[in-house]
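Handover notes (outgoing to incoming on-call)

Open items:
1. V(D)J recombination-activating protein 2: sequence verified, structure written out, both below. Nothing else pending on this one.
2. Nothing else urgent.
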Amino acid sequence: MALQAVSVVNNSSLLQPGFSLMNFDGDVFFFGQKGWPKRSCPTGVFLLDTKQNELKMKPAFFSKDSCYLPPLRYPALCTYRSSADSDEYQYIIHGGKTPNNDLSDKIYVISLVSKTSKKTTFQCVEKDLGGDVPEARYGHTINIVYSRGKSMSVIFGGRSYTPLAQRTTEKWNSVVDCLPSVFLVDFEFGCCTSYILPELQDGLSFHVSVARNDTVYILGGHSLQNNIRSPSLYKLKVDLPLGSPAVTCSILPGGISVSSAIVTQTAETEFVLVGGYQSDNQKRLVCNTLVLDDNKIEIVERASPDWTPDIKHCKMWFGCDMGKGSVLLGIPGANKQLISDANYFYILRCKGAEEDKEEELTAQVCSQTSSEDPGDSTPFEDSEEFCFSAEANSFDDDTDTYNEDDEEDESETGYWITCSASCNIDINTWVPFYSTELNKPAMILCSNGTGHWVHAQCMDLSETMLLRLSQANVKYFCNEHIDLNKGLQTPKKVVHLKKQPMKPLHKKTAPKLTTPMKKSFLRRLFE
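V(D)J recombination-activating protein 2 structure tokens:
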């Protein structure tokens, strides 16, 4: 096992705990940033380009028929194939946290539409579900099982907010374990069915789940209710006959008490378990090999890598599977750094270089790492780390690289300004208000002075009025300047109409007198 340091260029603050990775044909794509997407990448999905131990981010695009994918953090994610032997696959994303800390209960299907050296386009489709729809959650797992020529997804575990009826002022946003129910989701018909199994007594989150054919193995995990990391090892077997599905659960010996562990596949039936926590204040530096057969799983300890002093002494670490026997690990940077959110990253290779060239393995692994953000909890708590679930690849083309230094700070000078004294738009709590809004608030220009932008929502503009003002060529004045504009406005000049003399209805022209006639008239006047 070889450990290699990786430097992240651009000092991007988007690489924070909670995001996920998708691997399409060896290329790694990141989504689930902390905060709403910016103009440089409105989709919030990036290609992660690693070259010469450096990481760069390139924006990806969605097709016109795609739905909106919010930047979900800590979702459950896995690959989906129409059959176990199919080469084509999609990604299934369920649940997670939005930037407003709302929990999602939606399922999205991500598929690759086209890819060139400069542009990658995805299609994102939201699936409509019916029946026993799983509640909104995060920190859970989703896997695909195949039985009798059919396939279904299995959702288990996670955390959710306390139900509204049980909330108090002091613990309004506190989280609890989801009920230990197993959900089967049929993607063909959108039907959901829940199963309560007697073997599953406690809710779990940030556990490891590995699927092979019709069986899902659940290992480790953390229970908030009991504050323990269960050493139990569960085996879920799903049978998909023509009628109703059948789900059975059995408890196997030889489990491991661990949470936030990472699993990567090194052979057709062999996996490596790395990292995680064995207690609230102790990382787990031991590695294990998982060997899966059709009906059993074997867990044995294996030689650990030569951990660096930084990894050994740090209080928190995170990461996930990169595919092909590699794991990407991250640790927080030193507190003395100028950038407080910087992290150090390492790539752990669990097999030799020759084995890395083997054909991509198709067995499914769904591993959730956990723990609250460093600013939200103590470093010793079970941490909701961000998930790395694919292998990074190198590119010779450096165009379209996302550079955060070139990104305008919209928290001060863009859409997230304080537009007026009554402004209540906050980047951390804002949600779309108008149907035309996607990931930033609608704004309108006030024509007072040199002009300034204000939020349409803060001006109490209806959507009809906002559309009318955006289409009409008129000046708009905000609520603070509308009265001032009226007081300073110069009265309009009154134009007086010039009256034309009226012509008489009957105009008689007097006869024109000649000179002889004038003399005759004067002579008679003086006689």
